[in-house]
Amino acid sequence: MGNFQFFLASILAFFGVCLDGIYAVSCTLRASGGDDGPALKAAAQRCSTVLIPNGVILSIGTALDMTGLRNTHINVQGTVKFTDDVPYWTGNAFFFDFQNQSTFWLLGGKNILLDGGGTIDGSGQIWYDEFATNASLIRPIILTVFNGEDVVIRNIKQINSPEWFNLVHSSERVLYDQVHINAISTSSNTIKNTDGWDIYRSNSVAITNSVINNGDDCVSFKPNATNILVANLRCNGSHGISVGSLGQYPGVYDIVENVLATNITMSNAQNGARIKAWAGPNVGSGIVKNITFSKFFETNVDNPVVIDQCYETSAALCTEFPSNTYIQDVWFDDISGTSSGAEKGVVASLACSPDGRCSDINVNNLSLSPPPGDGNATFSCQNVNVTGNAASMFGTCPSTA
Ligand SMILES: *[C@@H]1O[C@H](CO)[C@@H](O)[C@H](O)[C@H]1NC(C)=O
Ligand SMILES: *[C@@H]1O[C@H](CO)[C@@H](O)[C@H](O)[C@H]1NC(C)=O
Ligand SMILES: *[C@@H]1O[C@H](CO)[C@@H](O)[C@H](O)[C@H]1NC(C)=O
Ligand SMILES: *[C@@H]1O[C@H](CO)[C@@H](O)[C@H](O)[C@H]1NC(C)=O
Ligand SMILES: *[C@@H]1O[C@H](CO)[C@@H](O)[C@H](O)[C@H]1NC(C)=O
Ligand SMILES: *[C@@H]1O[C@H](CO)[C@@H](O)[C@H](O)[C@H]1NC(C)=O
Ligand SMILES: *[C@@H]1O[C@H](CO)[C@@H](O)[C@H](O)[C@H]1NC(C)=O
Ligand SMILES: *[C@@H]1O[C@H](CO)[C@@H](O)[C@H](O)[C@H]1NC(C)=O
Ligand SMILES: *[C@@H]1O[C@H](CO)[C@@H](O)[C@H](O)[C@H]1NC(C)=O
């Protein structure tokens, strides 16, 4: 953690010098009654500090390309609210080939601080409702840090993103701290795919001291996420802290390396700590290496501890075509709490592909139980030699090939 603290301290020191004096052009924005997107974008390009005062609600009806900024402080005390104009956004949000994602807002450049205690509002309800009848609807991510270096996003609320809340794409040294995420549907249509964070092709990212209430991964490490710290989160309703899924696309090599996720409270979730990779014919390849999940406090979680190296693949195909994504040097340490009972007594499942695809998998101090009435805790595994002081809970893991 030493490196991350150093990284944080140096970024904050930089802003201290830069924002207090050298080029201080401060701009304050007010709502115009129309589309405030062009004014917000122009201010970010022109001013070193952009203030959206408390009580001001900016309505954003144009896609915000705020890449290439330098030494910019965006101080959101009020609200930045994206319009619910679905036809406009489906045609004009920025599109990424990766998993057919799109976004309202690209934030990039060097030395950027976004803070202020205010709110970014994605007007998600219309998207939750329309997605229920149009599964191919491309729903925007509320905020994407793209081609960013030394970016700090701190003390911000994000509500009702149409889809993922945050994507970190092709960026380096990005810190999220004290981010409060909340997705709520007021209709019977659910808040699908509202990941808290997805990290893709990015290095040195930290997410700390945050509270998340959402309907998909709390944090997900996508291909080429390296040197990541996730600490002190309270996740509710999510699909857990997830590596992957990796190795999905033929010909593509995916790396997730050097991840520490620690002090995580995980409630009412589908998963707790999870690694998932594809197997079967026509998939990709990759490596997951040096991943630590420690100090997870779980309540009502379907699968508290998971390695699934046969993700979306039948047992027969997984044996015939083992995953080409290798998983090495993984620690599940100090994970405690209760499952939901969705998997009966199973509280941990380490399901590897055959042929030594998983190695150096460690479990220490596991204290997990199913809810009363679901029998004894079961720890299941296959094709893996488990080590650590909780290894005996798993017994001898069967080999499937
Ligand atoms: C993106 O959407 C297109 C058209 O629906 C589909 O053919 C393609 O498989 C999708 N790509 C990914 C990466 O999901
Ligand atoms: C569903 O969403 C897609 C992609 O955004 C869009 O092209 C299509 O027109 C929508 N279909 C309907 C029936 O609205
Ligand atoms: C763990 O996270 C909680 C917030 O969920 C925080 O209050 C607590 O101080 C953290 N503990 C440590 C040791 O950092
Ligand atoms: C936590 O998640 C559960 C299940 O999704 C939901 O019913 C509950 O309202 C959430 N609690 C909070 C405080 O958001
Ligand atoms: C990940 O990084 C490796 C090494 O630089 C590269 O070969 C691979 O194409 C990258 N994969 C993705 C999905 O960007
Ligand atoms: C493993 O990852 C952690 C970050 O979680 C990092 O501090 C450590 O240096 C890495 N170990 C190696 C051998 O790279
Ligand atoms: C396991 O728990 C013991 C006692 O709390 C602690 O000293 C040790 O560091 C823990 N081991 C790991 C690997 O977390
Ligand atoms: C649970 O474990 C206890 C003690 O090992 C054993 O007596 C009991 O039969 C087990 N119950 C079930 C349902 O397996
Ligand atoms: C487990 O360890 C034994 C002895 O080192 C080795 O022969 C075997 O291949 C290992 N199994 C797996 C699934 O890695």
Break the fold down into its secondary structure elements and pairings.
Blueprint: H1 2-22, E1 26-28, H2 37-46, E2 49-52, E3 57-60, E4 64-76, E5 79-82, H3 86-92, E6 94-96, E7 101-103, E8 105-115, E9 119-121, H4 124-131, E10 140-141, E11 143-159, E12 166-169, E13 172-182, E14 197-200, E15 202-213, E16 219-221, E17 225-236, E18 241-246, E19 253-278, E20 285-311, H5 315-320, E21 324-339, E22 346-351, E23 358-369, E24 378-382, E25 386-387
Parallel strand pairs: 1-2, 2-4, 3-5, 4-8, 5-9, 7-10, 8-11, 9-11, 11-12, 11-13, 12-14, 13-15, 14-16, 15-17, 16-18, 17-19, 18-19, 19-20, 20-21, 20-22, 21-23, 22-24, 23-25
Antiparallel strand pairs: 6-7
Key features of this structure:
three-stranded mixed β-sheet; mainly beta; 5 helices; nine-stranded parallel barrel; 401 residues; elongated; binds 2-acetamido-2-deoxy-beta-D-glucopyranose
Describe the structure.
This protein has a single domain, classed as Single-stranded right-handed beta-helix, Pectin lyase-like (Pectate Lyase C-like), CATH 2.160.20. 13% of the residues lie in helices and 53% in strands. It is built from 5 helices and 25 strands. The relative contact order is 0.07. About 5% of the residues have low confidence. It comes from Auriscalpium vulgare.
Strand content: over 45%
Q: Please summarize the sheet with the most strands.
A: 9 strands, parallel, barrel
Indicate the CATH architecture. Answer: 3 Solenoid
CATH topology: Pectate Lyase C-like
Indicate the radius of gyration in whole angstroms: 22 Å
The parts where pLDDT drops under 50 for at least 5 residues are 4-22
The proportion of residues forming helix, as a percent range, comes to: 10-25%
**Which structural class matches the secondary elements?**
mainly beta
Q: Which compounds are bound in this model?
A: 2-acetamido-2-deoxy-beta-D-glucopyranose
CATH superfamily: Single-stranded right-handed beta-helix, Pectin lyase-like
CATH domain class name: Mainly Beta
Order of helices and strands: HEHEEEEHEEEEHEEEEEEEEEEEHEEEEE
Summed up, the helix count is: 5
